[in-house]
Amino acid sequence: MLVVQNLRKEYTNTVAIDDITFTLQPGKIFGLIGPNGAGKTTTIRIILNIIKPTSGVVLFDGKPMDRSCQNITGYLPEERGLYKKSRTIDVIVYLASLKNISSHKALQLANDWLAKLDILEAKNKKIEELSKGNQQKIQFITSVIHDPKILILDEPFTGFDPINQQLIKETILSLANAGKIIVLSTHQMDLAEKLCNDIFLINNGKEVCSGKLSEIKRQYGTQSIKIEYQGDATFLNQNKDIAHLDIYQNYAEVQLHDAVNPSLFLRSIVDKIEIKNFSVIEPTLNKIFIDAVKH
Length: 295
What we know:
Elements: E1 2-10, E2 15-24, E3 29-33, H1 40-47, E4 55-60, E5 63-64, E6 73-76, H2 88-97, H3 103-116, H4 132-144, E7 150-154, H5 162-177, E8 181-185, H6 189-195, E9 198-203, E10 206-212, H7 213-219, E11 224-230, E12 242-247, E13 251-256, H8 262-269, E14 274-280, H9 285-294
Parallel strand pairs: 3-8, 3-9, 6-7, 7-8
Antiparallel strand pairs: 1-2, 1-4, 4-5, 9-10, 11-13, 11-14, 12-13
Helix pairs in contact: 2-3, 2-4
């Protein structure tokens, strides 16, 4: 278990993070989410022992995270840090050696991971010869090749097309199923929503909301419905039961005022347009993010 407790980081004229606390469990994917400048990177660097907090502690299994934890931690930074002029296989083996893996073992593991991520043909190419997506795959491999207990992924889907996004998503889920503690920091809310068990939304260095994603959705839930229809739905613009309305070509997303019963609302419009489908919808993580940060 990884515990981040009352972290605070002050600089001369800035408080980067202010009293941040959360707990990460093995086998779970934890979403660290927030806008640019919110304090996510500072939090990650403190967990990794790259910088020291002004106050607060980071504990792994009850002991402080220090240099002795380096070999049980994997980190995929948002910025690429690969040696562009070197061969792919050499870069992987070298970075694995920094985690105390022998060259022979690292070569075997590198080939296994290259095959798993469908990039084995790139092993003898220079990093600079690879596409951005394939460079990201190599950086991902270097973060997991030593089988870390704690894995921190900062924007791991950068540069991927939908097929490779799916491949990396499945790989991350398999690592969680293997009992890893995974921190996922991303702006891609749809992927965070599909992957994360728990989230921590941070803004201006402070907690906005945190907990299980399902509970947060209930907390931020509104009377939102989706109506698929045939006909002219522009009359809904004048409906006083509606707090917010988005009309598209053949469906509308409607947020009702709190006191309005969705079933009664449906009865009031059913004779005006042909209803194909009517469903109550949960708020998306993207909407929660926007609403919480605005608030």
